[in-house]
Specification:
The complex is a heterodimer of chains A (about 280) and B (about 280).
Chain A: E1 9-13, H1 18-29, E2 33-38, H2 53-65, E3 70-74, H3 80-94, E4 99-102, H4 117-145, E5 149-154, H5 167-187, E6 192-199, H6 210-216, H7 225-234, H8 245-256, E7 267-270
Parallel strand pairs in A: 1-2, 1-4, 2-3, 4-5, 5-6, 6-7
Helix pairs in contact in A: 1-2, 1-8, 3-4, 4-5, 6-7
Chain B: E1 9-13, H1 18-29, E2 33-38, H2 44-47, H3 55-67, E3 72-76, H4 82-96, E4 101-104, H5 120-148, E5 152-157, H6 170-190, E6 195-202, H7 213-219, H8 228-238, H9 248-259, E7 270-273
Parallel strand pairs in B: 1-2, 1-4, 2-3, 4-5, 5-6, 6-7
Helix pairs in contact in B: 1-3, 1-9, 4-5, 5-6, 7-8
The chains are: A alpha/beta (about 280), B alpha/beta (about 280).
Chain lengths: ~280, ~280
């Protein structure tokens, strides 16, 4: 049985680990070849460890274990020229581009009145401008390919609600929805679809660190995941604390596949009912 | 390779033809057994626009599902009649063992009048089928879903007209907005049971409901006998993607995704399958 994205080529940012790696593996399992990029180094304002070159190598290993091709680069979505060079090289080697997962994103914290300039700017640069860069680098390839395409922006459940301590993150993720809707209209004549995903907490390193737990349990000096569990769960309508990267990947796969050939301009929550609660 | 809804049972209203039949076939292709209901007769206020489904149509759905080597229990039932609907579902569950997926798909399309000119009868028939019928469908299914204790997925067919106003279709637009309110409430009420509730929101779908001269004339009021090709040109201007309408199978693919465990944490969501209609 042919895979659901058999023969397609997918470009994924932030692909070294977490959701990005999961997307690469899920799409590869359904027949896609992968162009993967990740910064693979720390950003000063990000308070948890970022991905490493070893992480990106592990993504390569997992995709190749599925007998699919993968071209991977260390590239920073803030650097348009570097990102474009990586994508152009990948497209040249894999002969086309069909799917774009603009997944690279960071998280940091602070009350809006107290955020420093660098923390704000890093967030906007990575989570908003980085996504525009990703789309900008990809669009000429998709249009020239003449076979449509699917761009999936990873936004967040917070775009349907405000969230204290995340003014910069919430602003960037709201901005993505405006970008998605505009791109969807601009690219519709080329049968290129653009949608966004809105996860609740996802079970990755971004959610699992003492800083997140501390935000949820400011009363404790060294809170653990167990201390924070009730808060994680209280955000969702379904009885669970977080979703798995594979759940987001399944939504990416659906939107990337021809089964969703007439779905565009849609913000799709994968949020266990976070938005309606 | 196991199907994406292998071993599940799906209850589908309005299953005799069009989107409902397509959902039955698509879910059966991926391993589900089907409980199908349809009124399978005309409704007076709809007859002037297009004919109702027939028992022969429902028999064709049965044939197509059985050709996939899946089981199907079909009954003639009107979603406005709660007792009959409940009996049809209960019989289906008794025969197939359980129910996991609910597609509240049955609906009618009455249009052409400004809101203040809509007759009492047209308004009432449409609200009874498109809104109360969906509540009946959920009401009949929920005790089964909760009692089984294995979660479930309810998919209500709303419309792009559930997200945007539509002149000359106040009653339809109202009903399709209303089922979104029902969906959001059900999603919260049923979340503790891991039962998910979502809507699909299609643009025009290539079925008899829109492929009739009365509907084409709504878009081409100055043409005496508009054709499908003429209608296609106008329909295409309502969508962002360069297509006049979508196929029933496109909606079925969204129903399948929401019905499957791949969407196990998606609830309370309106999912447009609308070629960018609501965006434009």
């Amino acid at each position: 049985m042919a895979g659901r994205v058999e023969g397609k080529v997918a470009f994924i940012t932030g692909a070294a680990r977490g959701q990005g790696r999961s997307h690469a593996v899920r799409l590869a399992a359904e027949g896609a070849a992968i162009i993967a990029v990740d910064i693979c180094r720390p950003i000063d304002s990000v308070p948890y460890p970022m991905a490493t070159p070893q992480d990106l190598a592990e993504t390569i290993r997992q995709v190749e274990a599925l007998d699919r091709r993968i071209i991977a680069f260390q590239a920073d979505v803030r650097d348009y020229a570097g990102l474009k060079q990586a994508l152009d090289e990948g497209v040249a080697q894999l002969d086309g581009l069909d799917i774009v997962s603009a997944n690279a994103g960071i998280l940091s914290y602070g009350l809006a009145a107290e955020l420093d300039e660098a923390t704000w700017q890093d967030m906007i640069d990575v989570n908003l401008t980085g996504v525009w860069h990703t789309a900008k680098a990809a669009m000429p390839h998709l249009i020239a390919g003449g076979r449509g395409g699917s761009i999936i922006l990873t936004s967040s459940g917070v775009t349907l609600k405000g969230t204290p301590n995340f003014a910069h993150y919430v602003s960037a993720k709201h901005g993505l929805v405006g970008l998605m809707r505009t791109l969807a209209l601009e690219l519709a004549p080329h049968s290129i679809r653009v949608n966004s995903l809105h996860p609740t907490s996802v079970n990755t390193d971004m959610a699992h660190n003492e800083l997140t737990y501390g935000l949820f349990r400011p009363d404790l000096e060294h809170p653990t995941v167990d201390d924070a569990s009730a808060t994680f769960q209280a955000m969702n309508a379904l009885p669970l604390r977080w979703v798995e990267p594979a759940d987001i990947s399944n939504a990416v796969l659906f939107l990337a596949s021809d089964e969703a050939r007439y779905i565009t301009g849609v913000p799709l929550p994968v949020d266990a009912g976070f938005a309606i609660k | 390779m196991a199907g994406r809804v292998a071993g599940k049972v799906a209850f589908i209203t309005g299953a005799a033809r069009g989107q409902g039949r397509s959902h039955a076939v698509r879910l059966a292709e991926e391993g589900a057994d089907i409980i199908a209901v349809d009124i399978a007769e005309d409704i007076d206020s709809v007859r002037r626009f297009y004919p109702g489904a027939t028992e022969a149509d429902l028999a064709e759905t049965v044939k197509e599902v059985e050709a996939l080597d899946r089981r199907i229990v079909a009954a003639k039932a009107d979603v406005r009649d709660y007792d009959a609907l409940r009996k049809a579902l209960d019989d289906g569950v008794a025969q197939l063992g359980h129910v996991d997926i609910v597609s509240a798909n049955a609906a009618i399309w009455i249009f052409g009048d400004l809101a203040h000119e809509v007759s009492e009868r047209d308004w009432q028939d449409l609200i009874d089928v498109n809104l109360t019928g969906v509540w009946h469908t959920a009401k009949a299914a929920i005790p089964h879903l909760i009692g089984q204790g294995t979660g479930g997925s309810i998919i209500i067919t709303s419309s792009a007209a559930g997200l945007k106003g539509t002149p000359y279709a106040a009653q339809y637009t109202t009903s399709k907005h209303a089922v979104i309110g029902l969906m959001r409430t059900l999603a919260l009420e049923l979340a503790p049971h891991s039962i998910r509730v979502n809507t699909v929101n299609p643009t025009g779908v290539d079925t008899i409901m829109i492929q009739n001269e009365a509907t084409w004339k709504l878009f081409l009021p100055d043409v005496e006998h508009p054709t499908k090709d003429q209608a296609a040109e106008i329909f295409a201007t309502t969508n962002a993607l360069p297509v006049p309408w979508v196929e029933p199978r496109d909606v079925s693919n969204a129903v399948l995704f929401l019905a499957s465990d791949e969407a196990r944490y998606i609830t309370g969501v309106t999912l447009p399958v609308d070629a960018g209609y609501t965006l434009k």
